[in-house]
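Work Package 4 report. The design task specified in the project plan requires that, given a folded chain encoded as structure tokens, an amino acid be chosen for each position. We show below one input record used in the internal validation round.
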């Protein structure tokens, strides 16, 4: 998985990092970005606190085989209470994904969610109803793009 992340980070098209607000209030919100044929969409519902500044980074590696999407709170820990989350990729199939309750910042390490708190399908990473403990600060996805065979 680490090799996939490094490979995906060296993008042929300029990777794109965009700031967005994660808003509490219990309503379902979505934030989406596309790069070429690939799209990453983060859908969530959160409670408590005020808006938090988050970032989404998307990129494609140099041979166009891997699409990466990372969604995180740059301050490391979110103080919002997430009632649901889902990150979906279009145009590629997930090869590796991980969700974290705390993102690495200031010498701290990423703290992954427990495996039973979330689920991964071919195109989505999402909370697992009844198991997810409402903490989310980072999502990482590396997806394999379809190859055109000659």
């Amino acid at each position: 998985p680490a090799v996939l992340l490094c490979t995906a980070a060296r993008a042929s098209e300029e990777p794109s990092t965009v700031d967005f607000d994660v808003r509490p209030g219990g309503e379902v919100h979505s934030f989406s970005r596309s790069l070429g044929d690939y799209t990453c969409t983060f859908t969530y519902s959160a409670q408590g606190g005020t808006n938090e500044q988050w970032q989404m980074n998307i990129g494609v590696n140099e041979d166009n085989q891997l699409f990466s999407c990372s969604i995180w709170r740059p301050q490391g820990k979110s103080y919002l209470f997430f009632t649901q989350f889902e990150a979906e990729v279009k145009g590629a199939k997930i090869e590796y994904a991980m969700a974290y309750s705390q993102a690495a910042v200031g010498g701290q390490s990423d703290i992954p969610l427990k495996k039973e708190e979330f689920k991964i399908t071919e195109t989505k990473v999402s909370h697992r109803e009844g198991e997810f403990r409402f903490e989310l600060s980072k999502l990482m996805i590396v997806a394999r793009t379809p190859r055109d065979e000659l």
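Residues 1-12 have pLDDT under 50 and may be disordered. Validation will be extended to a larger panel in the next phase.
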